[in-house]
C-alpha cells in the first residue's frame, strides 16, 4: 500500500487552464493480468480556483468500494499563497478524520519560501518534525537547503544541499551531505548532475553516490519530449555494480492532451528475465470541462530549465502585469505572485519531485506550461 501511495503522489499531474481544474485522478495497479482500482483523488476549489481540500481514497478489494484514507486542507495568507497545509488520516474506529501532519511556510521579501516547518500530531498536540531553511543568491537562484530534524526537544542537523548554477541560472549540480553524529562532521552522500537540451529542458540527470571516498555513478534518468516540448517518457536506469552497464529499471510514458495536460500515464517495470517491460500502474485524469479549440492555440510562453531543481525562468512575449500560479501534483494552487515584464523567475525549490504546471494570466489571456521538479 505504501508503494501505491508513493507512486500516486509522484505521478499525479494537474492544471488550471482556461478555468480548467483537475477534478479527479484514478490510479490502477496491474494485478493478475488485469487493471485493478488502487487510489482515487477528489479535489475541491474556491472561487479563486485555489485548491482548498482534497480527499484520497483506497480501493477495498473485499467490498469493492472506495474507502477514505486521508485528506488535506489548505490555508492562504493575504498574498494568496499557501502558508499552511493540514493533513488528516481516516480513523476506522471513530469514522472520522484525525490530525496527522501540519506544514507551515514563511516567505522572504521576494515571496520565496525561506523556512518550512513540518509537524506531526502526537499525543493530541503538534510536535516539530522537520525544518528546511533555504538561501538564495542576489539573482534569486537557490544556493542551499539546510534540513534539520526535531529530536530531544531541539533541532538536530540532518542534511545540507549545495546548488551549482550556470550563467543562465540553470542548476547544473546538486551535492547533498548528511550529518554524521559520531564524527560531528558533514559527509558527502549523493550528487545529481544535469544535462540540458537545446530548449533548456533537462534531458539527462545523472545520480552519483559517495563510495570509498569518491563519486560513483549509480543511476541515469533520461527524459524524452515531443515536438511541442511536452514530456512523453521518463526512463530510469541503474548502473550494474558488477558489469558497470546501465540496466533498465522503470519508465513512465505520458499521453498528453493538446494543451499539454496529462490525459493518462503508464508506469512499467523492467523484467530482466524476459528482457521486457511489464505494467505496474496507470493514472487517468479528469478535468472540469472538455478540452476546447482554445487549448490548441500556440502560446508565446517559454520556460526553462525543464525539468528544474529550483527556479523556473519565464519568457512571455507582450507581457505587462502577469499573475503566476504554480499548481502541484494534487491540483493545489500552492503558489501565486505577480510579475512585471517579459522575463522573470519563479522559485520552485521547495516543491517535492513531481510534475507541475505554471499558469500565467495576462489580461484575458491565460497560458500554461507543464514542468518537472527534480
What does this structure look like?
This protein has one domain: Lipocalin, CATH 2.40.128.720. It is built from one helix and 25 strands. With 374 residues, it is an all-beta fold. The strands form three sheets. The protein has an 18-stranded antiparallel β-barrel. Helix content is 3%, strand content 65%. Residues 1-19 and 290-299 have low confidence and may be disordered.
CATH 2nd-level architecture = Beta Barrel
What is the subunit organization of this protein? single chain
Judged by helices, strands and strand pairing, the structural class is: mainly beta
**Helical content band:** under 10%
Low-pLDDT segments, ≥5 res: 1-19, 290-299
Distance between the amino and carboxyl termini: 24 Å
Work out the radius of gyration.
Answer: 21 Å
CATH domain class name: Mainly Beta
Secondary structure: number of strands: 25
Strand content: over 45%
Compressed to H and E, one letter per element, the order equals: HEEEEEEEEEEEEEEEEEEEEEEEEE
Q: Biggest sheet: strands, sense, closure?
A: 18 strands, antiparallel, barrel
Amino acid at each position: 500500500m505504501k508503494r501505491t501511495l508513493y507512486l500516486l503522489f509522484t505521478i499525479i499531474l494537474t492544471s488550471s487552464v482556461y478555468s480548467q481544474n483537475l477534478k479527479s485522478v484514478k490510479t490502477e495497479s496491474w494485478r493478475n493480468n488485469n487493471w485493478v482500482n488502487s487510489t482515487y483523488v477528489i479535489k475541491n476549489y474556491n472561487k479563486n480556483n485555489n485548491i482548498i481540500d482534497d480527499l484520497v481514497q483506497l480501493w477495498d478489494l473485499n467490498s469493492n468500494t472506495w474507502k477514505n484514507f486521508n485528506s488535506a486542507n489548505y490555508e492562504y495568507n493575504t498574498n494568496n499563497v499557501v502558508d499552511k497545509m493540514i493533513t488528516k488520516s481516516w480513523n476506522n474506529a471513530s469514522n472520522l478524520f484525525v490530525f496527522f501532519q501540519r506544514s507551515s511556510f514563511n516567505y522572504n521579501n521576494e515571496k520565496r519560501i525561506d523556512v518550512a516547518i513540518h509537524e506531526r500530531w502526537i499525543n493530541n498536540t503538534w510536535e516539530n518534525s522537520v525544518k528546511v531553511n533555504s538561501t538564495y543568491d542576489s539573482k534569486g537562484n537557490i544556493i542551499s537547503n539546510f534540513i534539520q530534524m526535531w529530536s530531544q526537544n531541539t533541532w538536530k542537523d540532518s542534511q545540507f544541499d549545495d546548488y551549482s548554477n550556470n550563467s543562465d541560472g540553470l542548476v547544473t549540480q546538486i551535492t547533498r551531505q548528511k550529518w554524521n553524529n559520531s564524527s560531528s562532521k558533514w559527509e558527502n552522500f549523493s550528487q545529481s548532475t544535469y544535462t540540458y537540451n537545446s530548449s533548456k529542458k533537462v534531458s539527462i540527470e545523472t545520480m552519483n553516490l559517495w563510495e570509498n571516498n569518491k563519486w560513483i555513478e549509480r543511476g541515469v534518468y533520461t527524459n524524452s519530449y515531443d515536438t511541442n516540448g511536452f514530456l512523453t517518457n521518463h526512463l530510469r536506469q541503474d548502473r550494474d555494480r558488477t558489469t558497470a552497464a546501465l540496466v533498465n529499471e522503470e519508465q513512465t510514458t505520458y499521453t498528453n492532451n493538446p494543451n499539454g495536460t496529462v490525459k493518462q500515464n503508464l508506469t512499467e517495470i523492467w523484467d530482466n528475465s524476459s528482457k521486457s517491460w511489464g505494467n505496474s500502474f496507470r493514472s487517468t485524469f479528469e478535468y472540469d470541462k472538455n478540452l476546447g479549440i482554445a487549448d490548441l492555440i500556440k502560446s508565446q510562453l517559454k520556460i526553462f530549465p525543464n525539468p528544474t531543481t529550483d527556479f523556473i525562468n519565464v519568457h512571455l512575449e507582450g507581457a505587462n502585469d502577469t499573475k503566476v500560479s504554480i499548481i502541484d501534483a494534487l491540483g493545489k494552487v500552492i503558489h501565486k505572485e505577480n510579475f512585471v515584464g517579459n522575463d522573470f523567475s519563479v522559485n520552485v525549490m521547495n516543491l517535492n519531485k513531481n510534475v507541475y504546471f505554471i499558469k500565467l494570466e495576462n489580461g484575458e489571456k491565460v497560458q500554461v506550461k507543464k514542468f518537472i521538479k527534480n
